[in-house]
Each structure stands twice: as C-alpha cells, then as structure tokens.
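Recall from the previous lesson that a structure prediction takes nothing but the amino acid sequence as input. Here we apply that procedure to Helix-turn-helix transcriptional regulator from Lachnospira intestinalis. The sequence below is the only information supplied.
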Amino acid sequence: MDSEKMGKYIAKLRKQKNMTQKELADKINVTDKAVSKWERGKGIPDIVNLEELANVFGITIVELINSGKDNADADKNYADCEEEKRELALYKEEIEKYNMRRKKLHKSITIICVAVGIALITAGIYFLKNPYMQTSEAVRGSIDGPTAVYFVKKQPAVGNVISCITGIVCIAAGVALTVKDTRNTSKIR
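The prediction returns the following tokens.
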C-alpha cells in the first residue's frame, strides 16, 4: 500500500463529493488533521477507518487500498478469488475484535468513573452534613475515673462542595463515554 497514492486518491474522492477535510473527518469520527495527514501521504487510515472511508465514498475497501487502479478488474477478480474473500473475512473479524476490546475498555472506564463519582459525592455530602472533625483526644483523671475529652474543628465547606462537583464531573464523563460509544457503534453498522 503506497501512502502517497492512497492519500491522493482519498483527496480526489473527497473533492468529488464536494466535502471539506473537516466534513469527511466528522463523518468517520477522526480529526481533520488526520485526514490532512492521509492526503499528504504522511500516514494511512487505521484498519477501522478504511471501512468507514469506503462506505462514505461508496467504494469497496479493495478499491480504496488499491487507490482506484484497475477498479473494474479488481472488483471482478475479488468476487472470484477465494483467498481475497478469506482475507476480507479476517479483516472484518479483526475489526469486530477491535470494537469488542474498545467496548470493554469503555465499559470499564465508565464503571470506574461512576464509582469514583458516587464516592466523591457521598463523601462531600456526608462532610457537609457533619462538618466537625475530631482533631485530638485527651484522657484526664478525675475523682470518679478517667474522662475522655475530645477536641473538634469545623471543616470548611469549600472542599466538600468541590468533592461533590468533581463527583458529578466523573459521572458525566462516564455517561458521555457510553453515549459516544453507542453512537459510534450505530454508525459502524
């Protein structure tokens, strides 16, 4: 795969569709800098992005990889060649494995964010309701036996409010990640 030829081909297809780099990037969930990098031949799309690019341009993955050369022959040979069918099946299997790993990672991150958020909010609310913290303890003797004396200090509410806000942000980040992952999954299919 020649990155410069592929880059020129992607630029040509993008211009034929009257799209800017930003519009193409938005359709396949990458940055416009990534599209620019591909078009300049400084890199090639990831395995997941190849399928999305082919769908956007209405071409086959083989045509995209071959940078458009011998399109008719490539399509005819592709339909007849069992080896290429197996390679495409392996490619799709790799994409599916990648997507499953990404989903598991995102679920784990979401669970951690929500758990940390709940803990921060709970601690913040608890200490807002109970602002007095024991700072020291002294035991003194008296005529009827030892007596414990506790010294307490009122904690400022600012830290507890910040804890609650941080918890809300953590939960929101987890939910946003889940929503983004759900949207990306629906776009791929």
